[in-house]
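Letters spell out the chain; backbone shape is given numerically. Take this protein:
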Amino acid sequence: MGDLSGKTAIITGAASGIGYAGVEVFVEAGANVVAGDLQDEKGKALEARFGSDRVRYVHCDVTKTADLQKLFDTAQDVFGGLDILWNNAGHGGTPTGVEELDEEGWDQTMNLLLKSVFVGTKLAVPMMKEKGGSIINTSSISAVCAGYAPITYSVAKKGVAHFSKLAAAELSKYKIRVNAILPGFIATSIFGASLGLSREQADQMAALVEQQGGRMQPAGRTGQGKDIAEMAAYLASEKSGFITGGEFLVDGGMTVGPRHSWDESDGGPLLDALGISVEQAEQMRLAMQAGQADT
């Protein structure tokens, strides 16, 4: 994790999940943080935990430019400027497929997950262009693989990743670096929220995800918000000064290949197509070996 001493960061979606872990990690690394979120009770508790001299909570709906502007005004007024922006806020997207999806559902997701990244980046440039800075955008493994999230979420997150690359090229003249993080299966409340659960229920579901999710990935455990936050802190620091325009998978290996590529107990597509279990295939192999030995 890099040293962020004396730097000021804005983190959206900061009151829970990955964003909350981001505040913890960034403060530990020495940064002052402007934390934006809609969850006022949690946000105020976050400010109280670290003290208003290190963390300032600002109520922020990232789909509203005026709300986003308040984050940047606070960074300037309270901490004297801005060095790091982490566009992290989001939700699971409108959970319907192409046939059922309407324009309103599409627009809602794009405004939250993609447009807010553009607006946040645009607002950051005037504050960073004189001395440089680091912009980090939360994308997703759904940007590179189908089947992990609804189509609206996946398309938006693909847009976030590609926007980051294009912005990195355009803003390099100001020494502003832009990178995207692509988290995998992280134990947060986003899964429950996507199912329409209350925030309390979604938080409870996050605990269940943490317990059960390890079986889904080669790393053997569910990802934690801190896993993503530590990557963000590295990308925010001078240690990553030669890195821009990157897309960084932090996914416990979920995208290395299908399950049978890393789990010997999974038979793979051929056995599935034949309707044969791994045990049956092994029995057939041993029987064939025995038959060859008899001839």
Summary: DSSP finds ten helices and seven strands in the chain. The chain has two domains: 8-257, 260-295. The beta strands are 8-12, 32-37, 55-59, 84-87, 133-138, 176-183, 247-250.
